[in-house]
Design goal:
This is Lipocalin-like domain-containing protein. The protein is mainly beta and about 160 residues long. It is built from two helices and eight strands, in the order E-H-H-E-E-E-E-E-E-E. The protein has a single domain, classed as Lipocalin (Beta Barrel), CATH 2.40.128.
């Protein structure tokens, strides 16, 4: 996906379409995540969109006072016979479980981090200049294993950065 120059990391609201000419082929990543060949083929042929709604809510903090927490709702849709899904991220660095038809149960943790605070050197490179010195939203997702013999997967990503 590519954003217009009027968009910033603080405002990602809107409907975003995956541009397959600018995007890497997801087949290898999906295969590593255990997605069956037929589903991967359908995803590659589908027109995929993301409807993003970003907002903040005010909560009563421990010991009084109010605090603002950022949320991001993403509705994934795809053409064809693929079902969509909806994910709501609360950006406060707390793990939460989510389940969908494609990835199963996944533990997701989203936080704000500067580029210097990101653990993996790959995640610190290739950002737009506007991100320098600012915190960006970083999400870590790890599948919850159903059986001990499963190998599992983990992905860490941020908007505006390639998936690894």
């Amino acid at each position: 996906m590519a954003a217009s120059l009027s968009r910033t990391m603080e405002d990602l609201n809107g409907k975003w379409a995956v541009n397959k000419k600018l995007s890497d082929n997801p087949n290898e990543t999906l295969a590593l995540q255990g997605i069956p060949h037929l589903a991967r083929s359908a995803i590659q042929m589908a027109h995929v969109t993301y409807d993003l709604v970003q907002y903040t809510k005010s909560f009563e903090g421990k010991g009084g006072g109010r605090r603002e927490v950022a949320f991001l709702e993403v509705t994934h849709t795809a053409s064809g016979l693929l079902r969509g899904s909806k994910d709501v991220s609360c950006v406060e660095d707390s793990p939460r479980e989510t389940t969908d038809w494609l990835f199963g149960t996944v533990v997701v943790q989203t936080r704000w981090a500067t580029l210097e605070e990101m653990g993996d050197p790959f995640l610190r490179e290739g950002w737009l200049d506007e991100v320098e010195g600012k915190a960006v939203r970083v999400t870590c997702a790890k599948n919850k294993l159903r059986r001990a013999q499963e190998s599992g997967w983990r992905v860490e990503y941020g908007p505006g950065k390639a998936l690894r």
